[in-house]
Amino acid sequence: MDIEKMYVGQTYEVKRTVTDEMIKLFAEATGDKNPIHLDEEFAKSTMFGGRIAHGILSLGIVSSVIGMEFPGAGTIYLMQNAKFKRPVYVGEEVTVQLVVKEIDPEKRRVLLETLVVKPNGENAIEGEALVKV
User: Measured between alpha carbons, how far is 86 from 53 in angstroms, rounded to an integer?
Assistant: First the structure.
């Protein structure tokens, strides 16, 4: 997307399903093999009652949307903050929601609100990203 076509308040939403395969590949790639993500029996005994996705995996989905869809290819991440509010479970379909908060056309920077929303409408992740378009 061209920065000149972006505007404050603009919203982009897309749904993604967090799969077992994604979690296993992320664990393998990062070395984070915490049993809360990989061992159903262990995870059942925790406060979550079952396996959950890595928080950074869920945030990584936000990154893929920013880099490939909105604003899109060529976008550079400069900063991300995030609060992990609720777990994302294996097989859960989440909505990535991006909202344009500020635009600096001279520096080609955009501040985005970044949300990962669970099917029940609760936020799993709340944050902000600064990107260069």
Answer: 11
The Cα 48–Cα 64 span in angstroms is: 26
What SS3 state is found at 113? strand
Report the mean per-residue pLDDT for the chain: 97
Residue 52 has what DSSP assignment? Answer: B
CA nearest neighbour of 128 among 91, 72, 80: 80
Which pTM was predicted? 0.94
DSSP-assigned letter for residue 70: S
Question: What is the residue whose two structure tokens read 């994302």?
Answer: 88
131: β partners:
77, 110
Instruction: Return the bridge partners of 96, or none.
Output: 14, 116
**Given a cut of 90, is residue 25 above it in pLDDT?**
yes
For the chain, domains (ranges, CATH) are: 3-132 (3.10.129.10)
